[in-house]
Design a protein that fits this description.
There is one protein chain. This protein is mainly α. It is built from 3 helices and no strands. The chain has a domain of about 70 residues. The mean pLDDT is about 80.
Length: about 130
């Protein structure tokens, strides 16, 4: 058995120093572990955020693509028909204005006589 300390005060001081060293070592290790865990967690959060942003971008592109595909195939609705009618009216007015600026119509040219038919003897000599 190890000899007992002669002073009772020495035991608590040495014990206190051992406990303090152990606690300091444990706290240091715990601090390093906490920092390492925090760093790993930050990396995971960053990766998840990048994945989320990428997924949102792809989803947005898919929505636009789908909307474009649907837009080209959907039947005309009442608003579409109204817009087309308005465009037709505008085109008609423009055409009327152009026709008014054109010179007056000329009389149709006299009809020409069709070429004379060949006689049957002329056909044979050809």
């Amino acid at each position: 058995m190890p000899p007992r300390p002669s002073k009772p005060k020495e035991l608590p001081d040495s014990l206190r120093e051992a406990v303090e060293r152990t606690v300091d070592a444990t706290l240091g290790s715990a601090e390093r572990s906490r920092a390492s865990a925090q760093s790993a967690l930050d990396d995971v959060v960053h990766s998840v955020d990048e994945l989320r942003r990428g997924a949102e971008e792809r989803l947005s592109k898919s929505r636009r693509s789908m909307a474009g595909a649907i837009e080209g195939r959907r039947p005309a609705n009442l608003d579409d028909i109204r817009e087309l009618k308005a465009e037709l009216r505008a085109l008609s007015r423009r055409l009327d204005a152009i026709e008014e600026r054109l010179p007056a119509k000329r009389k149709p040219a006299a009809k020409r006589k069709p070429p004379a038919k060949r006689s049957s003897s002329a056909k044979r000599s050809s």
